[in-house]
Amino acid sequence: MSADTPQDAFARNLRRLQTEGLDAATQAAIDMLRDTGTPAAARATAMNAVLKVSGMFDAESEDELQPHEMTAEQLSRAVAKSLRAIGDNAAASEVHEGADLFD
User: Fold this and answer.
1) pTM of the entire structure?
2) Fewer CB near the last or first residue (10 Å), C or N of the chain?
3) Would you give the distance in Å from CA 89 to the centre of its chain?
4) Among candidates 15, 48, 13, which has minimal Cα distance to 29?
């Protein structure tokens, strides 16, 4: 038996989890999704994990990110979206400027 440090053991096992473990977890999730005998709650959990890992929720989650969590590209999109919203609000207020509430 080799005398490795805790850091060596951690690195070795992390590599295994990231390779063998990831392959096994992916296959297990796919098997669960295909098996109609798997309980619905387990299939829903697997489905959510697969969709999340696949990036299906990225478009929605970008709106939930704080600016310090965003990439430069995400920040650019967020700024552009905010500017469009400001422009839309300004245009809407110009249309209603001078209009009475009861008109």
Assistant:
1) 0.48
2) N
3) 29
4) 48
> Is the Cβ–Cβ distance between 46 and 29 less than 8 Å?
yes
Write down how long the chain is: 103
- Rounded to an integer, the average pLDDT of 86-101 is 61
**C-alpha dihedral, 34 to 38 to 40 to 44, nearest 10°:** -50
Predicted confidence (pLDDT) at residue 59 exceeds the cutoff of 90 = no
Which two structure tokens, joined as six digits, stand for 59? Answer: 């478009």
